[in-house]
Amino acid sequence: MRLDKFLAHMGYGTRKEVKILVKSKAIQVNEVAVKDSSMHVNEITDKVTVYGEPVKYKEFIYLMMNKPPGVISATEDSRDQTVIDLLDDDVRHFDPYPVGRLDKDTVGLLLLTNDGALTHRLLSPNKDVPKVYYAKVEGVVDESDTIAFSHGVILDDGYHTKPGILKILNSGPVSEIELSVTEGKFHQVKRMFEAVGKKVVYLKRLSMGKLVLDKNLSEGTYRELTEEELEQIQQKNDLA
Ligand code: URA
């Protein structure tokens, strides 16, 4: 790969900016100062440094975001702000996209990556990756709902959902619950509650498989996954 492309991809600025770095002799390849930013490097075996700092090649990016309300889980939208608009340039140039969707008003855990194989594994319907949501629900949620969800409920389009595990945190005129589901149908959680005559008024995703929303991430912020989190979600049979 061309050196300027490689460094641009690693977040060292545009090709033009890389040229300036070359001029100021800031870049070395295998301990030799670079004269031409168009030179070719092997991104795995060549040792590239910028101002003496080694540049480690990275193809994929994995971000955990606490999605705020009012933002769309998409890469572009003609009207609304998207989750990609919330990213800084140093990660945006990897072209990440959200893994699955949260509704515009839903908040919480959203994984963004450019790793297609991982996305496929996480979203594959037969992988049964559990997703846990916290919700506030208008109406008294009780044991009858827990039982109904444990058998799956029939949505407005006649679809019989897979079982969901409902935990009632607080039952009242506005109940608080946690629901674990393995599917990701359009408006899944909201429609499951509609099926039992109740309305979700607040929805937050807490986890996806073993990936748990970091409590220190405020809404609208994100961070890269830790090595440990990455290992956990990459273990092919260990998502559930
Ligand atoms: N279920 C919903 O109804 N909405 C979401 O955003 C996610 C799950």
Q: How would you sum up this structure, described in words?
A:
The chain has 240 residues and is an alpha+beta fold. The protein has seven helices and 13 strands. The protein folds into three domains: 3-54, Structural Genomics Hypothetical 15.5 Kd Protein In mrcA-pckA Intergenic Region, Chain A (Roll); 62-125 and 211-234, 2-Layer Sandwich (Alpha-Beta Plaits), CATH 3.30.70.580; 130-208, Alpha-L RNA-binding motif (Alpha-Beta Plaits, 2-Layer Sandwich). β11 (199-208) and β12 form a beta hairpin. The radius of gyration is 22 Å and the shape is elongated. The model has no long low-confidence stretch (mean pLDDT 94). The structure holds uracil. Uracil binds next to α6.
How many domains in all?
A: 3
- Provide the succession of SSEs: HHEEEEEHEEHEHEEHEEEH
Query: CATH topology of the largest domain, what is it called?
Result: Alpha-Beta Plaits
Helix amount, in percent?
Answer: 10-25%
CATH architecture descriptor text of the largest domain: 2-Layer Sandwich
- Indicate the proportion of strand residues: 25-35%
Number of helices, where a helix is a run of at least 4 consecutive DSSP H or I residues: 7
Give the overall silhouette.
Answer: elongated
How many extended strands? 13
**Average predicted local confidence, pLDDT:** 94
CATH superfamily of the largest domain: Pseudouridine synthase I, catalytic domain, N-terminal subdomain
Uncertain stretches: none
Distance between the termini: 38 Å
Briefly note the structural class of the backbone.
Answer: alpha+beta
Backbone CA Rg: 22 Å
Largest sheet: 9 strands, mixed
